[in-house]
Design goal:
This protein has about 300 residues and is of the alpha+beta class. Helices cover about 15% and strands about 30% of the residues.
Length: about 300
């Protein structure tokens, strides 16, 4: 499903130039494009995109950045999990989306300073715990008279979360919601510091050749499919996302298809694109060929990590 959003003036100007025609380019990492999973890339530009994907894979393979990434905790799933079965009606869904919560009672103090993220392999990583107040404020920023969710209790607990190193058991704050038998969960630890990428973003490349992905939307339970989000304009046919798989990485190359010349509305269209892998992702790094960096994950209430 497509959701249309207005971006900053800089993005709007870029799209207008791109739609207007010849020679319009995007600087990777500064403008974004995407859409539905369709079509193929301009075959004349295919070799350049393939070459770039291989360069990104080679740069990360065996690098210090890859070592740091694999040693860290990097969520690839939403750090906020709804009660089992989801929200009961449209009013509660609107309250969650608008972050309109009401707190009944006190938020507890930290039970300890640090908590451990644990993987099935037996590996673990100790990270500072997030205070209950800060965790609550990431999901509850509203305060209007519309539909709201009422928090009646908060306690420490755990949740299972997809990460760059596979599923992990993560410390969490469990928020009891009025009318629900199971809690809303919010991870109580933040991600590890991002390593410095061993390769720079590609510059001055046409969007029909290569464009940056918006973010990672999810990985299936069997690890064989990855869903990403991307933005594109009203005067194109959406994106294609190609994949290069190596032993240590999965490099995604996105491009915008079928850009038309002439006048065009200045709107952005966001869409989900799902790519299938030949084998489970495991602990391989999901990289963006355009930016040369891991594709960031962003939940509904969790800002993406910054690579600036």
């Amino acid at each position: 499903m497509h959701a249309k959003t207005t971006r900053t003036a800089r993005l709007l100007v870029t799209l207008a130039l791109f739609a207007a025609g010849a020679g319009a380019v995007t600087g990777c990492g500064s403008e974004r494009a995407g859409g539905h999973d369709a079509g193929t890339r301009d075959t004349a530009q295919e070799p350049r995109a393939q070459t770039r994907a291989r360069q990104v894979a080679d740069a990360w393979d065996g690098s210090e950045a890859a070592r740091q990434w694999r040693a860290g905790y990097h969520p690839m799933g939403d750090v906020v999990q709804l009660p089992e079965g989801g929200l009961r009606d449209e009013a509660d869904k609107r309250a969650f989306t608008s972050q309109n919560f009401a707190l009944r009672g006190e938020l507890p103090a930290l039970p300890r300073k640090d908590g451990a993220v644990k993987w099935k392999s037996g590996a673990s990583l100790t990270l500072p715990l997030l205070e209950a107040r800060k965790a609550y404020e990431t999901v509850a920023r509203g305060g209007n008279d519309g539909p709201h969710l009422t928090v009646t209790g908060v306690k420490p607990g755990e949740m299972t979360l997809a990460t760059s190193r596979g599923p992990a058991t993560v410390p969490a704050w469990l928020f009891t919601l009025e009318g629900y038998d199971t809690p809303l969960k919010r991870a109580a630890v933040g991600p590890s510091k991002l390593p410095e990428s061993p390769i720079r973003p590609i510059r001055n490349v046409a969007a029909h050749t290569l464009t940056p992905l918006d973010r990672l939307a999810g990985v299936t339970g069997d690890g064989r499919s990855i869903t990403v989000l991307a933005d594109h304009g009203a005067c194109d046919s959406g994106p294609a996302v190609h994949v290069l798989e190596t032993r240590t990485s999965v490099v995604l190359s996105a491009s915008v298809l079928g850009a038309r010349r002439g006048p065009c509305t200045s709107e952005m269209i966001r869409a989900k694109v799902t790519v299938k892998l030949t084998r489970p992702i495991g602990d391989r790094i999901v990289l963006d060929a355009c930016t040369g960096r891991p594709v960031p994950h962003q939940g509904p209430h969790e800002p993406s990590a910054s690579w600036s």
